[in-house]
Amino acid sequence: GFHGVLMLxxxxxxxxxxxxxxxxxxxxxxxxxxxxxxxxEAGLPVWWSLGEGPPIAAFGLVILWLVRxxxxxx
Length: 74
Hints:
The protein is an all-alpha fold. Helix content is 86%, strand content 0%.
């Protein structure tokens, strides 16, 4: 829940908080990659590993794409 509220707060003022949005996007990508590696190393089922980390990383990429194309710089 805290992640969703943070995303709403940042999106409400994206021009001012653009660096925060970029940071959130980058950290989601990295976290998704790390979770995927950890899941495979822990021996979790493939369906679990592919259903947990890659969507997190993809969400981070979407955030970065939206930040880049969504609101022009002042």
